[in-house]
Amino acid sequence: MENIIKTEKLEFVYAASDDAPSRIILNKLDLEIEKGTFVTIIGHNGSGKTTLAKHFNAILLPTGGRVFVKGMDTTDESLIIEIRRRVGMVFQNPDNQIVATVVEEDVAFAPENLGYPPNEIRERVDEALKIVGMYDYREHAPHLLSGGQKQRIAIAGVLAMRPECIVFDEPTAMLDPQGREKVINIMHDLRNNHGVTVVLITHHMDEAIGADRLIVMSDGEIFLDGTPRDVFLQTEKLQETGLNIPVTAQLLHKLKDDGFDVSLNALTIDECAETIYGELYANHKN
Amino acid sequence: MLKDITLGQYFPGKTVVHRLDPRTKLVLMIAYITALFIAKGLFAYLFMFAVLLTCLTISKIKPKAILRGLRPVFIIIIFTVVLNIFFIRGETILFKYGIIEITAEGVITAVFMASRLMMLIVSTFLLTYTTSPIALTNGLEKMLNPLKKIKLPVHEFAMMMSIALRFIPTLIEETDKIISAQKSRGADFETGGLIKRAKSVLPIIVPLFISAFRRADELATAMESRCYHGGEGRTSMKVLRLSPIDYIALLFGAAIVASVILLGIYTN
Hints:
Number of domains of chain B: 2
Largest interface: A-B, 41 and 28 residues
Number of strands of chain A: 10
Oligomer: heterodimer
Order of helices and strands of chain A: EEEHEEHEHHHHEHEEEHHHH
Shape of chain A: globular
Structural class of chain B: mainly alpha
């Protein structure tokens, strides 16, 4: 498979200042992200996950090692626009990403920056708004929308660049449960139906469930890396980093400890319910 | 409570005046104000007043909105009137008491000055009440575009203006929250003398500034992520284009300025 993002011994160090010693945020990190996959990166605060994400579209530049986006070195100043139009980024606070006072004008911001002709911009804006289901709100004022709706506008604003990869940096942290669910669904829709590579940075374990790959970060290094199922099986290792596995997996682990013969593979609520039902039914028969 | 503040003075509508290109309206406003200063004599003033009244009627701006808009400048108008009445000397003395002297010429000049001032202000309402702030910013940017040649940062100014407009409601909401938070911890904003009250504003201003800086930082990162690199090579989704009604309106404007000049020549 083709890589969209590749880091080689990526290092990021905050230089020492008068009142603080130098601090290593990312420590010789090697990572490859395959095109078309859904990758979740999890870690507690200060694990370096956001710093890592900001290297993917040249917002931050490595202090050591290198980052490549589709083979382009992010330290090459002349490639910066080419890199950023391919790897978009959605941030935590929807309010601080919206530039314009009208929804469609905001979505048009990126293609305007890229210098597309007006009719092409119109086409991209309409397409992006339809993907996130906000087309009917195109003439509204963003400050009157809910947090979840604003975040969907922010996603549309990135989609209008037609990027190959979108990095979501804790996109649900400030949203209510409904808004959160919508945003998660959109991320999966982008991966499944629009060929967009999704990198999700989060500290919600349950947001990792549907991912193709789960990377756990700790102290600027990759601590665990694999499919969500594989990672969640390593309960003790996860707890070492102060992270908890999703409640579904927790429940199954406890049942297993208590002597029930359940499989530990179920992650979604439906799968989990199915597993427990199967076990109870088998017991009942005996 | 702060949220109820109306942003700008724009009243959305679908009249001809609303549909005019913002650039046309800007040019017409400047033309009207110029004409006001050229205008001399009762006829010219009546003519200018009639023009203004017609435009206001077409634009369907409510008289109440105009009065409310005039309220803050009322003191200036009264000041002008008083100054003119007392300090303009003339032949026909209407009233004399000690050194105070009111002349007919003074009264006439005062009335003219006051009506000129009021017409001037109301004509600017015609622009700001019927044009959304964003359209106005876009129009200004387009009109000032030639100034880019002499290295004036026209695009940057327009971008700053529109971001400021975008963040006004957000910051108002935030101020509201901070006030509530400080009140709930026992801050008192309502009582005390001037100095005490001024001091009590500090616990609102400081957090507001800190948050505004944080927002600015995040917004800058988000804008860069969306390939913002200044005004160079930037296009626009909505292209401002002058329509036939714009040309007609501009013709009317030229005709009005010409008539005022002619009126000035013939009445003298």
